[in-house]
Structures are given as C-alpha cells and as structure tokens.
Write a structure and sequence with these properties.
It contains 2 helices and 8 strands. It has about 120 residues and is of the alpha+beta class. The two termini are about 20 Å apart. The model has no long low-confidence stretch (mean pLDDT about 95).
C-alpha cells in the first residue's frame, strides 16, 4: 500500500517563529503567499517526502499543532462517511485553486485529520 498521507500543515500560534525554527532546524526553504482573512500561507519545501505548509492557528485558544492530510478519491463521500462513523466536520469543503479540494474532520476521539481530493 502506498502512503495515503499527501500533505502536512502546521497551524501555529506564532507562525513567524515556527517558520524560523523549522527553516534553521532542517534547512527548509519557504514561500509566503498572502491569503485574505488568514494573513500569509507559507509553502514549505521539505526537500523530500510529503510537502508541507504553515499558517497562523485559526481556532481561538487552540495550541500549535501539525495537521496531516489524507488523499481521498471523492471528498464529499469521505466527509459523509466520517460523519456516519461519528466524526465531526470542522472545516467544510474548500478549494485550493488548480490543485483540488479539502475538508477537515475530527474523529470521535477528538483528533483532527484533513481530507484532500486532487483536481483532475
């Protein structure tokens, strides 16, 4: 079985500090893109393995945390299945232009996971 994890994203309470830390720690290069309502989204070149991103934590009072994304063939079906199994929708379907769509669900134990459907 191939690796189903397709992307990693750090939601940080101090994005600038986290960006500096990981850049120095692993010599990762990054690129910032302004995103309305969020500030900046940082794409991280991890050099090998799964690509990653970094953004300011959007949930008030939540700690910094990494969020893993799993590739799914059909996002809406995966979200419906997660909900049927007791999961909760945290972030509804959203588009990443020219790349695909994602949603974030929480499993019945409280852990969050991103679901990602690739475009085309």
């Amino acid at each position: 079985m191939s690796n189903p994890f397709t992307y990693l994203e750090l939601h940080s309470t101090d994005a600038a500090r986290a960006k500096a830390f990981y850049g120095e720690m692993f010599d990762w290069k990054s690129k910032d893109t302004p995103v309305p309502g969020i500030g900046f989204y940082t794409e991280i070149d991890t050099k090998e393995g799964v690509p990653a991103g970094l953004m300011t934590q959007q949930q008030k009072g939540a700690p910094s945390a990494w969020l893993a994304y799993i590739a799914v063939p059909k996002l809406d079906e995966a979200v419906a299945r997660a909900q049927k199994l007791g999961g909760k929708l945290l972030a509804p379907r959203a588009e990443v232009k020219d790349v695909g769509w994602f949603a974030v669900v929480q499993d019945p134990t409280g852990a969050s996971i991103g679901l990602f459907e690739k475009a085309g």
